[in-house]
Amino acid sequence: MSLQVRPISTDQHRAFNDSRPSVSFLQTPAWAQVKSEWGHESIGWYDGSELVGAGLVLHRRLPRIGRSLAYLPEGPVIDWESDDLDAWLAPMVAHLKRRRAFAVRLGGPVVLRRWNADTTKAAIADPTMTRIGDAPPDHLNTAGVRARNQLRHLGWRPPRDGEGFAAGQPKFVFQLPLADRTEDELLAGMNQLWRRNIKKAAKAGVTVTRGSVDDLAAFHAIYTETAARDHFTPRPLSYFRTMVEALTAEDPDRIRLYLAHHEGDLIAATTWVRVGEHAWYSYGASTTAKREFRGSNAVQWQMIRDAREAGATVYDLRGITDSVDPDDPHIGLIQFKVGTGGQTVEYLGEWDLPLNRPLYAAFDLYLRRR
Length: 370
What we know:
By secondary structure, the chain is an alpha+beta fold.
């Protein structure tokens, strides 16, 4: 197979994505509009005249020298099960070299390992275990292992262990399988605390509704409250307006805003994104006041049910770290997500290919010090 990589139009890129069961929302043309501070291009892999792969490339240009980091978050969308990944990656690298990239960073959307909820809970409870990766997985994807080995052989640099959320898109996520499961089965698969909190919210009169762009200011107010409470830097309101407008322009049902109220007070709010059969919990926020009414559980349960109703086969609660150390500041987040009864999923993660080693070394040092 001899593949060629060349730019494709936004319409071609959208049509290709639509032909797949799902791709990451970070690999949609609309995402380039959200990340407007980056340059961008859509590229396609051609086998003769047939478009067989696609990717969104974000270009982070270095000032004054005109070179860029070429970044494909959770992509590209190619045949990652191929025995010859070089046939796919080499023409992409050649194209990006011509675009003056000093390095390429990709995030292979390939699962390596899965751990069921019971296995994850056992790892958390085991005082001798510090990382979920130390526990035997319930499922090992041999195609993912083959892809990882090929990347190493081809000179790509693997992600560093222990970087948590600092390495870009998360390597470990938590997912709830939805395919062929009823609402009753999904609820029964949750732990007792989740079921009790969902019932408690309903009994207290918590209502969950879908919002619009006009509700983003209210969402952002409690999002910034959450950021102060949980010690992270919030994104500005303008970011969420751009995100909703860009994703909605591509597909009217690409993104939704959910609001949980109690007696007229907004107590939790979330964003939900779906591409084909994959739905993601994207951003979440809750107030310190009225936390006893469990708005966060109520809004998650509504999103899970709506994802199933929309035809999604997986509900993705996004990133976790792989640490199960009881002193880790993120352990509460893992425990919250594992209560849904889903699976810890390890992806291939983000890999770098330096094309200009001095520039790459300087950029890598900057990222590690930031």
